[in-house]
Amino acid sequence: EKGGYEHFMLKEIFEQPRSIGDCMRGRLDANNGRLVLGGIREYANKLINADRIIIVACGTSWHAGLVAEYFFEEFCRIPVEVEYASEFRYRNPVIKEGDVVIAISQSGETADTLAAIELAKSKGAIIFGVCNVVGSSIARTSHEGAYTHAGPEIGVASTKAFTAQLTVLNMIALRVAHSKGTITESRYHELLVELENIPSKVEQALKLDAQIEHISNEFKDSKNFLYLGRGYNFPVALEGALKLKEISYIHAEGYPAAEMKHGPIALIDEEMPVVFIATRDSSYDKVVSNIQEVKARKGRVIAIVTEGDALIPQMAEFVIEVPRTDEALMPMVSVIPLQLLSYHIAVMRGCNVDQPRNLAKSVTVE
Ligand code: F6R
Fold first, then answer.
1. Closest ligand 1 atom number to CA of residue 361
2. Whose alpha carbon is nearest atom 7 of ligand 1?
3. Residue 115 reports pLDDT greater than 80
4. pLDDT band at residue 363, thresholds of 50, 70 and 90?
5. Ligand 1 neighbourhood includes 158 CB (under 6 angstroms)
6. What pLDDT, on the 0 to 100 scale, is given for residue 129?
7. Ligand 1: centre distance to CA 193 (Å)
8. pLDDT, the chain, mean
């Protein structure tokens, strides 16, 4: 049932053009400017009129929440807070009626996320669930929701669930922004078209597999890794680091690139691989300066760039070119090489990629 792949994780990484497409099917029709999300019909007004959105999640789902924070704020102009469910539930958070809580969970069974929802519900918040597993506890406890429809995810490391979460959250944000009038018609249409094109761009990114395998061989014995990105690619840096540590047991940290000089820069020497997610976007020039700072300290730079980039290939030791897309949608594309990098390194180190030590697919205890 691994469909000819050696591991579920690899199968699920390669499934993403299809799973992202499935997530949009029947919901998005860019040609006609249509975006219909069954689950949000009744509660659309709650989101449109929300004073605040609070996103609660754990792990990879929390990273999807961080990306969503950027586009909900940019497109919908609604303040967003992204919370680790485990912290939120224990610190007497301020929750008011008018607040909308979006709970993100692949399994729909994560104990802390479920408890955070119960707490918010008891204070009168509306709960919107973004789950993958149909009929799961979180899906049932939420007032409304939208499934990610990524299909069963077997590998413990979450891959296709993450890109499907981003797809759903993006559609919700665009739908709300369009109703609120906080996005121009032309930008709205541009993003719908771009969203529809994501599966083919992910398909293209997957063709980098052999190149990434080669890079993995170069770094498989590293003891540490740093992942740096800015803006929409900052949560991608966190996600890349999490994927590597959980399946290859290499210590890795993700940081917003600008934070590097507030501490992590002290770690950089000729032994330190630094993965930059440095695609062409509004923070590109700043990221280029950060690459220079790492180079000056002899760090080994691996850069994810937009195809055709002429500058970074002169600076980085390894360059991975992904297709161009809108910066708000780039995480769905730029995360692909990072999933593959962690996969290959883990396999080369002889790790059990589908069932890493100490981890479970659903964390039903707090
Ligand atoms: C990472 C991973 C975990 C989960 C986290 C939340 O690859 O799988 O960090 O993302 O346990 O799980 P869900 O999304 O099921 O609530």
1. 8
2. 157
3. yes
4. confident
5. yes
6. 97
7. 30
8. 96
Antiparallel, parallel or unpaired: β 300-306 and 318-322: parallel
Active site residue 160: no
One-letter amino acid at 117 equals I
How close is the Cα of 57 to the center of ligand 1, in Å? 8
- Percent of the chain past pLDDT 90, that is, above it, reads 92
Catalytic residue among 46, 180, 295, 361: 361
Tell me, yes or no, if the pTM score tops 0.90.
Answer: yes
Higher pLDDT, 42 or 246: 246
Nearest Cα residue to atom 5 of ligand 1: 59
Q: Whose C-alpha lies nearest to ligand 1, atom 4?
A: 59
For the CA of 363, the nearest atom of ligand 1: 11
The model's pLDDT over 266-307, given as tens digits with 9 standing for 90+, comes to: 999 999 999 999 999 999 999 999 999 999 999 999 999 999
- The verdict on the CB of residue 110 being under 6 Å from ligand 1 is yes
Q: Is 106 in the pocket of ligand 1 (CB under 6 A)?
A: yes
Alpha-carbon span 347 to 362, nearest angstrom:
23
pLDDT recorded at residue 44: 81
CA distances (Å), origin 224, targets 149, 249, 250, 301: 35, 10, 6, 13
Q: Which of 56, 88, 107, 148 to mutate to test the pocket of ligand 1 (most atoms within 8 A of CB)?
A: 107
